[in-house]
Amino acid sequence: MFNKILIANRGEIAVRIIRACREMGIKTVAVYSEADKDALHTQLADEAVCIGKAQASDSYLNMERILCATIATKADAIHPGFGFLSENSRFASLCEKCNIAFIGPTADIIEKTGDKSQARNTMIEAGVPVVPGTKEPIFDAKTGEQYADSIGYPVMIKAALGGGGKGMRVVRAKEEFESNFNNAQREAVNGFGDNSMYIEKYVEHPKHVEFQILADHYGNVIHLGERDCSIQRRHQKMIEESPSTALDEATRKAMGEAAVNAAKAVKYRNAGTVEFLLDNKNNFYFIEINTRIQVEHGVTELVTGIDLIKEQIKIAAGEKLSYAQEDVVLRGAAIEIRINAEDPSKNFAPCPGTIKDMHIPGGNGIRIDTAVYTGYTIPPYYDSMIMKVMAYDKDRESLIKKIRSVLGEVIIEGVTTNLDFQYDILNNERFISGDVNTDFISNEFGL
Predict the structure, then answer these.
(1) pLDDT in tens, 53-110
(2) How far apart are CA 288 and CA 114, in angstroms?
(3) Of 81, 97, 210, 428, which sits 20 to 30 A from 151 (CA to CA)?
(4) Could you tell me which residues are beta bridge partners of residue 337?
(5) Contact 339, 410 (CB under 8 A)
(6) 292 is catalytic
(7) Residue 400: inside a domain
(8) Which of 16, 292, 338, 396 is catalytic?
């Protein structure tokens, strides 16, 4: 087992990893930017190293400085969390060259799964259902339009190396294709430094369902059930829950097996998530594999009782999986509400600032992951998520009542948040009935 782990991240996920390491008797190193000098993760870790200025490019995305901090503090592993360098194959490769364990899959796996076009072709070969679309990358609008004509509208244009909703456009008519393709491609180049795109059939009003997987170095792969991530705005998830109201047992079993097959097809290692779209006829289609811990991992932890961060660390240290598939039992229901420092009335513009007062509720089945505190100043340089409010109960009906009560008790003063907007969703009749899809926010709230 590792003696010391450096956490190449910030915010609540850095705090979450530090706490897991503490429970395992592993020392921790926090890295921080000048803007994060007073951040909670720097206070909780055994050591803290400043790695640069506020901009992420000068700090949390600066591979050389992170590796130097790892070597200087004699840490033997790096946990990348999510975002930043967590899915960067070059960083994983550099860790390997420096004889530092990267707590995640290998650089080769990250590269193969990160290229959506390549991952798609691998899934086709493995018999995992995929949405009809192009097998090879598209580099110009004219060629893309020909494929779109053959597939049939509506289509989705996607950046091959995209993520987080960037480099994506839905096109419903031929005359709209060229401009949308060019805009998406420019976004892809600016965001990912790559101009390869691909085209697929757009699935109307789908649900977004993902399966958590764990895979060790000995060929053992299991799934830990699903999370429904259909409540999202512009491809950014807002609420996640497990189990999904859309799945019957037969579909759940088939999707779980497909997720395991997808992981085996790329010889996956560590924790990951296999994401699917589910149409209104219960047909499911592979979207992508996320090669990192997810923001919403706590939902799975609540219904399975399995600590995913600890499992990540154990796998990276060369241990076999602690669980077989038959050991995984999903009990009750869990949900996560993402609280962001943003203003829904102003197109969800980020709202950095100082938290003047704050109250976090507790109680049976309540979990809140956060790195903010009264007096903390939220910097303007990073993601606006400041808190994840989670709850667990015996069934979904009881769960919704509980999470509404909890959210009504949360107090965050000094900055504008999306708290009230999330509360409105929880009181929406369609949400309460489980009648949700990825168009829910736009249809119900016009956003």
Answers:
(1) 999 999 999 999 999 999 999 999 999 999 999 999 999 999 999 999 999 999 999 9
(2) 8
(3) 210
(4) 239, 389
(5) yes
(6) yes
(7) yes
(8) 292
